[in-house]
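Name: Ribosomal RNA small subunit methyltransferase D
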Amino acid sequence: MGELRIIGGDWRSRKLRFPDAGGVRPTPARTRETLFNWLNYQLAGADCLDLFAGSGALGLEALSRGAGTATLVDHTPALARALRENLRLLKSDRGEVVCDDVTHYLATRQRPPVDIVFMDPPFRQGWLERLLPLLDEQQWIKPGGWVYVEHESERAAPAVPSHWQLHREKSAGQVTYCLFRVTGRDD
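Structure predicted for Ribosomal RNA small subunit methyltransferase D:
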């Protein structure tokens, strides 16, 4: 079993467990602290989407810090069960867990666009190249919304649509993380 500690907000210091499944590597506490400092004024009441949710580190942290809702998407049934159980333990009805392949989920949008997307996919599998265009084509992000992306430091920054502006970027060891602001569409 893995363990995750919420680092800020209403559930600060709460420890949650998740199964060792699917090569989950939760976003480290220091990285989460930096990310949520970047998003400090955008988070209150935000509708968030946590893709490749895994341990739930990003989506649960967002809820703890005042996000209105968070949809956590992961294709591994054991992780989805653990995410649901952790939401129950936290007595939160603002989180929804979807057990689905991320590509399928994004290709069949059946809900309004979101304010913030968190994307921390497995490394070295080409996920960002496939999914960043899909996020844009399916108009998943509201204008003025945010997309957070983690990728391996040895690779170049992912190509993003021209109306996404790099807001912040930082590297920590083998991980580079970026926050993009989505402005009005070009088309």
